[in-house]
Write a structure and sequence with these properties.
Blueprint (H helix, E strand, L loop, with lengths): L1 H18 L11 E8 L9 E10 L8 E9 L5 E6 L17 E8 L13 E3 L17 E7 L8
Parallel strand pairs: 1-7
Antiparallel strand pairs: 1-4, 2-3, 2-5, 6-7
Length: about 160
């Protein structure tokens, strides 16, 4: 009987440990997940890039955008998932925002993929041929697809 009690106690203890094993990083809502994908074979020698998150008041024409978050990452290949930390209250820094429903959030990618020190042809950027590819829902916790492409030759390096 003692052996059965020991086994039950052990199983119960393991169950409690597993049920309480929660990733503390995921308990807060101060992040967004982005699935960076290429619409073509993207070749890059420099794995380092930056993702910037901006917010703006959508009710004001020519509203000033506010940089809310900027984070550096390194990717060896695509697709690549980015976890971008965002401010506790991302609405607060947006000027003249009276209603959070009027906030618009978008991202910018800075990826000097050929590592020449310039962002120009051959580098990687958002695929702007996809409508509103840069707009982000900051309330979603599931990954949001972001399509990337190579910067065209019409953007020459100086």
């Amino acid at each position: 009987m003692k052996k059965a009690e020991t086994i039950l106690f052990t199983l119960f203890s393991v169950f409690l440990m597993l049920s309480c094993d929660t990733d503390m990083d995921d308990m807060d809502n101060n992040f967004i997940l982005l699935d960076l994908e290429g619409n073509e074979d993207l070749n890059f020698t420099n794995p380092a890039f930056t993702v910037n998150l901006y917010g703006e008041n959508d009710t004001i024409a020519n509203a000033a955008s506010v940089l809310l978050a900027s984070q550096n990452f390194e990717a060896e290949d695509l697709p690549f998932e980015v976890r971008l930390e965002i401010p506790q209250d991302p609405y607060a820094p947006i000027p003249d925002l009276e209603n959070s429903n009027n906030a618009r959030f978008y991202i910018e990618i800075q990826w000097d993929s050929d590592n020449n020190g310039q962002l120009c042809q051959g580098d990687i950027d958002l695929d702007y041929s996809i409508q509103n590819v840069e707009l982000i829902n900051i309330n979603r916790r599931d990954p949001q697809d972001v399509m990337l492409t190579t910067v065209p030759e019409t953007v020459p390096c100086e």
